[in-house]
Backbone:
């Protein structure tokens, strides 16, 4: 695989992508926490018993399992994406310095 010596990677764009992912993740995480809170509130106050209550509790438990509970899963994932973008820029900068020092 040959490399293109004229390849330009925009640090600003890559950082923007990471920041955008982080922002979306935080927003989605907050929305999911609110959703789970509402589901819990409905099962405890609006439908305290019966078949619908049992079905909603089962649904809520599945949502919590898929989401990972109320642990901030989406926020963690988006933070990892942001860090990956930052690490990518750092690695490219490091590789550029290495190649410059070695005359490549």
Residues:
């Amino acid at each position: 695989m040959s490399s293109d010596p004229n390849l330009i990677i925009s640090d600003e764009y890559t950082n923007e992508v990471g920041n955008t992912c982080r922002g979306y993740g935080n927003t989605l995480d907050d929305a999911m926490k609110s959703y789970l809170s509402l589901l819990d509130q409905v099962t405890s106050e609006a439908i305290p018993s019966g078949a619908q209550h049992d079905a909603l509790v089962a649904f809520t438990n599945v949502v919590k399992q898929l989401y990972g509970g109320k642990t901030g899963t989406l926020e963690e994932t988006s933070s990892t994406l942001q860090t990956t973008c930052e690490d990518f820029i750092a690695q490219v900068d490091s590789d550029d310095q290495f190649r410059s020092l070695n005359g490549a």
In short: The mean pLDDT is 85.
